[in-house]
Amino acid sequence: MIKASSSRALFPAVLSAALGSSLLCTPLWADDVPVFEVKADQLKSTALTLYNGNGLVNQTIEQTLSEGNSELRLKPDFSFWDLATLHLSTQGNSQPVLPELLTWNTPLQETADLIGALVGQEVELVRAGRESSIRGKLQAWNGVTGLLQLANQQQELFQWQEGFSLRSLNKNPLKPAVLSPRIQAHFNLKQPASAVELSYFNRGLSYSNLYRIVMDPEAGKLDLGLTATVRNQSITPYRQAKLALASGDSGVTNEPEMFMARKAMAMDSAGIGGGQRAGELLFIPVPGEFDLPARGAVTVPVGSENQIPFSSHYSYDFYGAAHSSGVHKANPVGQIRFTPDKDLPAGPVQLYAVSEQGAQMVHKGLLPQTAGGNPVELILGQAYAVSIERSQMSVRHDRDSWEVDWKLKVSNQFNKAVALDIQDSSSQLISVGKLSGGAKDGLKLSAEIPAATTRIISFTSVYRKN
């Protein structure tokens, strides 16, 4: 029974396949052409490459095709398969053979389309709030108005509206081919094929990374582990699938065919989990094989790197050209630095610290995509046990510049020494000199603050006048 409601959509919206007029001209195949319906257990050697917002599917259809004409039928997910990227080719030939023609019809999805499929059949029209109904043959339907041919040779004209329902009096009026159409691949082979390769993009596939980093402050080492959650919004399940995760800027998010071109490029370097670079992307294979259910998700381990040395320090930035007097209080920002051996894809990170109570989470952040051998810096947040009081001691003006004498009073309440980086972010800053209590590297200053100690750092900054 089909009922009218405030929304005319009966099924979830799907992406319609755009077929040119040439594709609508189906060849005149002989009646005895063998037709092979692909079953789920025939899809083998599944490999999924996950990108940002979609996934490339590669599978082998274990179906032999005889010499001459044959037809292969495959049930897609019209909501998520990108049929423009669908690629089929035979195996077992001297050269792969493509189908001569791919055809499909989009499934009926709207109430108006479903009613239109009942034209010519006996139906019963029920109006809301009325005990009686009208039976007859649905003669015509234009999407809003229908015509019923009654048994007494009269005709009933009705306009579809909320509260109406339509019941077919025939058995199984809408065939599976109408509600769930198939892709039809027509082959004409000069020699038999042992199998068929299938490839397409599925917009329902996606993944997200999550790093778990456990640092041991006493040992100065950390362990890094990466997991990925793979999601499948489509109705297509994938069994015993090999997974690979693509990370980086593809530059062609809406043009999936470019991903395949990049995938064919020469690869070099090694990433976490044995990842490989291709173009500007990092492809990371996930160890093992996994079952990815329809409308489901799995979380899988991707790789790890252990006992990485790290250093912790604090960073204090200020804007010295603001001509501000008085005492300014602030807390520096805690950071850790480490250098991984392997390429790391971007992803959120949870940072834990080893303590007497076990590993305790101390920070959530984001780890940027990093090539192996390059340093990673994670910002942890403002320190509560390290404080700074900045005072402007004196100011001297020249024609083109002015000088400021600064005094920083840094208090460290930790029971261990801390490293402090000091940066004046003023664009007018020319030079820093007359430093006491720290070290200088260009315009950047640094200092070691002993445990449970207050240290005075003084210096002079020269600024350019606008």
UniProtKB/TrEMBL annotation:
It holds the Pfam family DUF4139. The keyword Nuclease does not apply. Residues 196-425 form the DUF4139 domain. Residues 1-30 form the signal peptide. The keyword Protein transport does not apply. Transmembrane segments: none annotated. InterPro entries: DUF4139 (IPR037291). Keywords: Signal. PANTHER family: DUF4139 DOMAIN-CONTAINING PROTEIN (PTHR38075:SF1). This is DUF4139 domain-containing protein.
